[in-house]
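ligand=flavin-adenine dinucleotide
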Amino acid sequence: VLAKTPNPQTVCYQALHQDYCEEFVGETPHQIEETEAGEIVVKRLLAGGRGHYGPLEHPQITLACGYFPHSTMQQLRTHRVGVSFDCQSFRYTGARLEKFVSKWGDSLTGGEIPIEAKEELEKLVYLRPLGKYKDRIGLMYDYRQDARDRAIALAIESLKLYAENRGAGMPAEQARGLIPFDIRQHWVVSCNARSLLHMLDLRWKDDAQLECQWWCDLAWVHFANWMPQVAVWYEKHRAHRGTLAP
Ligand SMILES: Cc1cc2nc3c(=O)[nH]c(=O)nc-3n(C[C@H](O)[C@H](O)[C@H](O)COP(=O)(O)OP(=O)(O)OC[C@H]3O[C@@H](n4cnc5c(N)ncnc54)[C@H](O)[C@@H]3O)c2cc1C
């Protein structure tokens, strides 16, 4: 968490209070205890499918997200309303890929690739761990060592070509086109409480991409810590249910 609105549930409470309060909330700010504010917010805005989500748009949280595969960023970035992103684009940030290739040099060509080089590669490029995975319609797929080894070899070839092209003066925005799709990427995202819950609605359900669900697991910890009473309500009524946007 890079930043977050302090007392977010109180802020929601003050906003909802202004909706029906004759007095100006700026003069009589209705400072109540954060837990009580959260309980009122749930009772008056959310319980029983009320759907008064507007006041949840006031508190804001900024998350630094690191080492995720590119595809996770790409999917989260489809959310446009109340969400702002700043992402590495690999137009300015490919130096770590070139460093990897120059560090391991000839040991990446022919023969067995050193285990340490493979481990370092996996800090740059994301590959799922070995194991059994479900696809979107529930069919199982076994990701085995031989398939993973081929993916590692291909990723190394891509990075070698990237370094070679960059060394020959190719601009980064052209050279990036052939780096492995699931290169690990860092980004900063800011959401308000409502837009974050909307992303969880769509990306925490079973048929969302696994890595997006893992992003939700991590974001959830911070949300639940930040707005605990709202989080209890959300977990009970919406989490993982795949309530779809219209
Ligand atoms: C499991 C899954 C698979 C997906 N697969 C694909 C795919 O293959 N290809 C692909 O391109 N996308 C795909 N998407 C992305 C999806 O189509 C949406 O673009 C994305 O989930 C953003 O959702 P949203 O519009 O609800 O979010 P937001 O952009 O945050 O919008 C929030 C809400 O605002 C309203 N809204 C926003 N913009 C508009 C608008 N222009 N007009 C009217 N109302 C609007 C809607 O009510 C919307 O729910 C997938 C999403 C999921 C969850």
